[in-house]
Design a protein that fits this description.
homotetramer; alpha/beta; Rossmann fold; Dihydrodipicolinate Reductase, domain 2; 2 domains; seven-stranded parallel β-sheet; seven-stranded mixed β-sheet; 11 helices; 14 strands; about 30% helix
Chain lengths: ~350, ~350, ~350, ~350
């Protein structure tokens, strides 16, 4: 059976990445592409790299007949997403890629995003989309909230360590290096090539990045007590990739063992041999996440390094993985392509 | 049926690209990976981005049992390739990615490559691997010589114009901009990031680039008279991509019509609407070639611009396309993935 | 004596480059920085790389007391520039970096820029700012119109060849590769890092780039008859640099000799030994222009390649060179710094 | 008075950077350029970006008449440097840029570099070249050992905090991101553009980077007790720059105050306003170091971020600063140029 798919927000980078992935998917067909600001254009006009595909013209969201849609991806900006989803059919399966339904506590949402939540009922039913840890709930869900790309990276590295009880919960530092596509296609001065190329910097320093809301929620839930990490993202001159360097206290071999055990049968998470560290260049364009563990020279301390592609495993690949589960398709379908290197 | 594939030269960039493509191919299995200098290593050690794949350990070429191989890709340096191929079984289907069997005239080979040819018998049976123009010969061939990546780009742009008789054959200029992976993984000072990033330059200026041997051979054959083009390659700070800007004399509309007609049913060659020009970012990682035609403000002159990925359509993608034909597989199998953007 | 300098448009890239250069200038002091949209900010807020300098706060243009200014640089957008300059004191020395006063013929201005000229009187008195060819006029000028960065590059390569009569005037092709800072600091989708990095393309193909207005004006004036070149600019993923590849018909040795003779005593134009071609990496951040000549394999054809930094020799460095002349300062003062490599 | 300068190792990146800086220096003249492997070549052949300079031809070291040299920069590989310096005149002023004389304890040298020291006498007289903290000793020194570029960055951030007693000495983490020119011009696969561009990774993870020898020596000396930090360097796709993110425990305001007080009168160290973080793009090509402090959301923790150009303040700029002191020249001479942005 072929499922009929709609993508809202098709003119952004995560929208394009969804199209790239779904175009090769044997069990899905793209039936509708929503992009209000570019309605009426063909995909070749918005994304010339997709010009070889036969796809519907971009339309406004209200032009889409959702009765014919089996599953809808929402790749809209946060805040817009909750408003749109509130108006969609209540039985439509939805994978939301925005930040709108990630935080279960409306107060936490308001704290991190600055506005009251406008679709609290839907927030209640939303399942957090970190596939490897919410697989059953996602399979049964109507609405899945895709995780932040940074939040996914850090959780892949740290969740199993909390569960296994092998690290000090009060001494977790995540120093993260993100490529520029994570900031989307928005027109901001600091995203210009002339600003970014040959330069890099820390931003949201001191614990102000919104993905901390997800870390706090998830790590605390896993630990059964409040866990607050330190998290500093950096913007580096590359298009795709997240590399997170985690500084933790615990036995490095036990840490490696906990990760290896947790991901032993996971198709997309590769735990490297002890002592090796990953690189973004080796996951680019793929749905894989590589994790390495190295013992520090200081006893009782370890470095955990994780790498993934923010647009794929960190966003649109994760979304497709979740959609596969929701539709009863083999989870890995359309997602096993090798990374693009060089 | 699943065909058994060997790749010689598996530790270079075109070797890695072959593995990336064939890993997803439904009708091929990689049975042997040859890489003399890295024999004994796993693919994960040589190319960590392929670590998720179950692949044979790298071996020396003489460790491979070619009796079990249906088709062998040779991604070896030129000169080495002819020596290796001369010793392989004489009935083994081979797609060679080196320069060794591209030039039918041994004297031309010696002129451009500086050494006498060591496998002239095989050169005689080799078919030039520009799929769209040698499809029947390739289907029947035992040994196919993959084209130069620059040579492929220029031919896609110019061959139909010669055939259609719409341009002045004595006034063809190809100004080509190539990304760095075209130079391979060799350790040369001018390929260092610190040398190349933020800098670009022309090289082999004045008609000394070896791919001119292919242009001369092919354009003259098509025209039925000697055709010699001007060709200046440039190295730009990017990893993948060739963009060639062709300056020709003729009617721009007729030129566009000739290209559109020639490629109307080709799955991988996209002729853009008249007046549009392509970009390397829109073909990266794919087997597509985009071609655009624009009329110059000077009457009777036109600009033809072609773009492709040097590692895919310019090399390993082309090789797989040819292998599909040689094995009786649907030509596009394993090659329809969308480009990676951004 | 120290001259008092104002810079209008101080928050753009050419403004920042002027500040960088003048900060080290022994005979100039920056007295006023105009930037209407960022008035009230310090230079450290707008350009943190200049934070070590003691500079005036940015102000609106009408807050500047021009009576105290010896020379004013206008680094404003075209069209705005002519409106601002029309209102400045009529005896104020001005170096304009915009396109507004480059074209002597108001009809040509309107043709290329799409609007009637609003300060035709000033256009009449403006001197074209290509220093090496208008040195005497610039020394005596009140208003100098900085050239286009592409236009400067092409003219350095071709003007001496027209003067010397060594090339066919009807067969000149300039294929130019420009780095992104040439497009300024404006917020456009195609200037985003995620769009541009790892991708490159031709733009304004077919003779529609505005700098052709300058080529037409200047080459025709030098030749004493209409000369129209073909010109295709390309945008490459680098921040600074222009590399232009010129295809001309003539004797390569004569062409090299004409260039060498023309620039023998020029401090900033380096003609490379015959057969060598320049690179943008070797002029970055400097006021130098490197030019090379290579004979093509086709008799009677030559390739001329020029390289300069679009922000320095192509814009702000040229502007300072002109200002030095206008103020009676040694022409090279503040401009002899070596390029930054790597 | 003009001092006569020799540069040994003139064909590497730090050698080129020394030439760039000294070419503009009013009190120094380059008299000899040593580069054994490229002896006989002109500087234009080795570094075309310096072709406008009138400089001596490269020679072997034993061709240099050191009697005429006032000060010699050694920009040679470590181990080679100690062998060469042992043979130079014993009264020659030397600034060594290698790692050979940084570690005062020969056992520590052997531990980190793997070979016994071959010039222990000279090691005894060498002064550690971190100008801002060894100014008096450097002024009086004959032999100054330039610091590691990473080591300089970390020390600028942390030394004043140890002195002021405002941080926990057992909880210092330095996560450092280095551009590729720090690895020099050597031919290694991981320095190729095709490997590095669009990819980044951690290396020497777990406390194995040699610059830890300097951190251990210096931080322990300042503290008067052993201090061992955690240090993870990362290689990012840029040519110049070091950005170090320091995680420390202490009061953020006190930390900022300690840094501000320490560097209040330093010409090259800029402490940003509290709460701001620096960027490599704002120090590129300059001798400035920018340091910012931000309070973490977790009480009692702070993030200190430092940025400098590895080739300038991290290496050749520091060397010139030290040479100025050793020759009695104003310390800032030739070093006040603004950074190059964009």
């Amino acid at each position: 059976m072929t499922y009929s798919i709609a993508i809202l927000g098709a003119s952004g980078y995560t929208g394009a990445e969804l199209i790239r992935l779904i175009a090769d998917h044997p069990d899905m067909t793209i039936t509708a592409l929503g992009a209000n600001s570019k309605a009426g254009l063909s995909i070749a006009q918005v994304f010339p790299h997709l010009r070889h595909l036969t796809l519907p013209t971009l339309v406004t969201i209200d032009q889409i007949d959702f009765a014919k849609i089996d599953l809808c991806f929402c790749a809209l900006p946060h805040k817009t997403s909750q408003e749109v989803i509130a108006k969609l059919p209540q039985d439509l399966k939805i994978v939301d890629l925005s930040a709108d339904f990630r935080l279960r506590d409306p107060a936490a949402y308001e704290q991190w995003y600055g506005n009251p939540h406008a679709a609290i009922d839907h927030q209640a039913e939303a399942v957090y989309g970190l596939t490897e840890f919410y697989r059953d709930e996602i399979t049964a869900a109507r609405l899945v909230a895709g995780t932040g790309c940074n939040a996914a990276t850090g959780q892949f590295m740290v969740r199993p360590l909390i569960t296994a009880g092998v690290i000090d919960l009060d001494e977790i530092i995540l120093d993260l290096k993100c490529a520029v596509s994570g900031a989307g296609r928005s027109l901001k001065e600091n995203l210009l090539h002339a600003e970014l190329s040959e330069g890099y910097h820390a931003y949201a320093v001191g614990g102000t990045h919104r993905h901390l809301g997800e870390f706090d929620q998830e790590f605390s839930a896993v630990a059964g007590r409040p866990v607050k990490v330190q998290f500093t993202p950096h913007l580096v001159p590359a298009n795709r990739g997240i590399l997170a360097t985690g500084y933790v206290k615990g036995d490095a071999q036990a840490i490696h063992a906990a990760l290896a055990a947790c991901y032993a049968s996971e198709p997309f998470i590769e735990v490297l041999p002890f002592g090796e560290a990953p690189s973004t260049r080796h996951v680019r364009g793929s749905n894989f996440c590589h994790i390495g563990v190295v013992a520090d020279r200081l006893p009782g301390r370890a470095i955990v390094v994780g790498a993934l592609d923010n647009l794929t495993k960190g966003s649109s690949g994760q979304a497709l993985q979740n959609a596969n589960l929701m539709l009863g398709i083999q989870e890995t379908t359309g997602l096993m392509m090798a990374p693009l290197f060089p």
